[in-house]
Amino acid sequence: MSMNFENYLKDSKTWLHELCDYLGIDDEQKAGRIFRAVLHAIRDRIPAGEAIHFGAQLPIIWKGIYFDGFTLHEPVRIRHEDEWLEFIRSKDAFAEDADFPTLDHAFYAFQDVMSFLRDHISEGQYNQITEAIHSEITVPA
Known about the structure:
By secondary structure, the protein is mostly helical. The protein has eight helices and no strands.
């Protein structure tokens, strides 16, 4: 099996460019931080087995970002939307004030990322993620 890093980079950049459109921003660095934060929040919120299946559908570079820091875990318990949005903000390390200055910013970023994922992963996987997050959290159908 040959390693075609050019194709890996191309696939990941394609996702990033498309994600910028979904987020309505031109800043790829910011889009990447937002995507990473939401991916890590989802990863830590859903059961480990589902997290692994979800990660398998990502382009290889995004897969590496998604699994960075991953451990087998019990899903983080989150019951309310504000708690979920704060959890997403916490996944953005030192940039949360710039990327998610308010919970509204986190809400709309989460909605946009989920819409992006709905269009880029299998329907079954998307439905598993939305069911695992929690019924109190608004997720695009």
